Amino acid sequence: MTAAQLDHRTGDVLVTLLDVDGQPLRDRDVLVEQRSHAFSFGNIGFDFVPVANEETASDLAGLWFDVFNTATLPFYWSDFEPQRGRPDTKRLHRAAEWFTRHGCRVKGHPLLWHTLAPDWLREMPTDEVEATVRARIRREVAHFADVMHTWDAINEAVIMPVFANEQHPNAITRLARERGRIAIVRLAFEEARAANPAATLVLNDFDMSTAYECLIEGVLEAGIKIDALGLQSHMHQGYWGEEKTLAILERFSRYGLPIHMTETTLLSGHLMPPEIDDLNDYQIPSWPSTPEGEERQADEIVRHYRTLLSHPSVQAITYWGLTDDGAWLGAPCGLVRADGTPKPGYDALRRLVKEEWWLPPTTLRTDDAGRVAVRGFLGDYQLSCAGRTASLTIGGPGEAVTTLEKGTR
Amino acid sequence: MTAAQLDHRTGDVLVTLLDVDGQPLRDRDVLVEQRSHAFSFGNIGFDFVPVANEETASDLAGLWFDVFNTATLPFYWSDFEPQRGRPDTKRLHRAAEWFTRHGCRVKGHPLLWHTLAPDWLREMPTDEVEATVRARIRREVAHFADVMHTWDAINEAVIMPVFANEQHPNAITRLARERGRIAIVRLAFEEARAANPAATLVLNDFDMSTAYECLIEGVLEAGIKIDALGLQSHMHQGYWGEEKTLAILERFSRYGLPIHMTETTLLSGHLMPPEIDDLNDYQIPSWPSTPEGEERQADEIVRHYRTLLSHPSVQAITYWGLTDDGAWLGAPCGLVRADGTPKPGYDALRRLVKEEWWLPPTTLRTDDAGRVAVRGFLGDYQLSCAGRTASLTIGGPGEAVTTLEKGTR
């Protein structure tokens, strides 16, 4: 990746350092240390819900926090509220607080989805399904407004009204079929927006075809405010490659909306056969991670993350799982083996996030007006000078002048 | 096909026959003869444009008119107006008149399409492309308002903005990409509607995936009035079969709009390999019609037409070509061989349209109030009694009372 390709990920800030009495700190050493990325390097935090609730322990938290800064927490309705009226709010809220205390952003997934809709919804008349869906969305977004600033408002609306891969038809598909896709997208965004106007609400889909473009165009034409487009990218059938990835980004960036790569997986074992249509249909007893697979995965992770960061529309990437232990479909898609040891892919991603795309601790010298020019990746920094510290945010590309007082942090 | 499956295609009319002096014609023989179908059994009429203009002769007109009642005429822009400002209006209008004189309805195809856009459009700024497109649509619809009552207002809008299978990008794709799908659909319908408010305007596509559903939902949500949904069904890669056909009809009938099967082909030779994505990419020197292929085609035509007529939403079927001579892609998709002899598929379709789905000449007897109960396929009929005739339209299922005076025809 050339420097030019990452220009949109970095910023220059000319910082004037003032002493506590307001005088410029002339000709002094300043240590600049990056503290965080503005870019969301996300992963799911599902495994840490019991950890945060002190029900189990885990050795993996260190590995998680060393690379990732955004946690996706599960709000699959049938798991979250298996009995009507008894939602798992407290445990999830504690998990969100736990991630927040560790300096992470937290995202909820998903508010509305046909899969994992609760059984008790199935026999309801459609009007009651709608009312119940609306109430559930309002409830979750309101209860979590203090800790959860991003939501997948609706998941897979393209297939939602025609979803047929199930024995007993679910009520959300029925609702979507009777009301139409745009109406159901509106419903989800309307309720979530009302409950937390400040939240970032994502339209999320796995369908990368023209169908998703058509849905987006209809939704925008209908005046529904979307904050980001979520593109799933489970690559169980093989890495997309740079060309396909850039073509997809090009097509979906046409709408001028931020893009979140919401569900990214790359395998470190054999690939799922291409003829499988619904990934859920591929069920095998054992799906091992292999040495060759792990090398390939590491290489593809680096290529994929580089490609995604090269495109200015991409604001977030959520890798879908840290460990193979309990991974979706039993696939070796984790960055850590089932035994807890990191795969090469973990190390490769950490190198990108914490070394290549990270300003190393750097000592600069203020000029005779007390100024230093800091150039770094968008994110938060700490400046240390003469035993006192200050924080600095590099918020965008271009120049800015920030006057800092020592010891404000 | 059971009688029940065709109930929606037939109607009962209790007709009271009055003499010229207004007296009921009691206890008399009445001959009932079907004259036409309400259902549109269509075909393209491209080959008859030079015939209607007396530039060439053709032996095929008899075969055409014996089965089909709706002609689709070509308005491919680059052929229709190869030099800007010199459209082929007169020849096409004569062709439309010729078909009308033969008792046919006439349809224009298409008003807006990225393929076969004229070369002279290519370098225009997008605003000028839009103005030129709008003017072309207004011009054609207005000039043909007397003879052309149905138009494919826009063709293949799903792929239009992302169409890439060409060396030199066309201007319509650019317009669609910059404006968006819904805007360009609106543009086409808006201009056509303004030029002929009575026309039936069709949204036509080959994309039978959820993408087309999403587009339709967006278009309807945007308040654009669509008169019919056009579903192309070129089956060069094999007959869809009843199950897939009914599933498609089920999905697209959800919008409560009439469905036109706009481009139907079934081959009487080998099939195109399934891996071909854009049918236009399959180019072979010779594609013969074979005896086995002709038997298969005849069987599939019967099954396909039966399936389509069984679904109440379908109002029109356009078969795409009468003869193999000059057929699209050189495929043996005609109902007549290149030498002009009918294939078994022609005879099979004629049997359906003119025998199985046609009331044979039937003599009924009026009762003592001068009434006969006529049950027949929706369409126009002639009643003859005592050397005088009257016309009758069976316009819908259910009962009706129509009083006729002899000799009004």
From TrEMBL, chains A, B:
It holds the Pfam family Glyco_hydro_10. It catalyses: Endohydrolysis of (1->4)-beta-D-xylosidic linkages in xylans. Residues 54-352 form the GH10 domain. SMART domains: Glyco_10 (SM00633). PROSITE patterns: GH10_2. Its EC number is 3.2.1.8. Keywords: Carbohydrate metabolism, Glycosidase, Hydrolase, Polysaccharide degradation, Signal, Xylan degradation. Belongs to the glycosyl hydrolase 10 (cellulase F) family. This is Beta-xylanase.
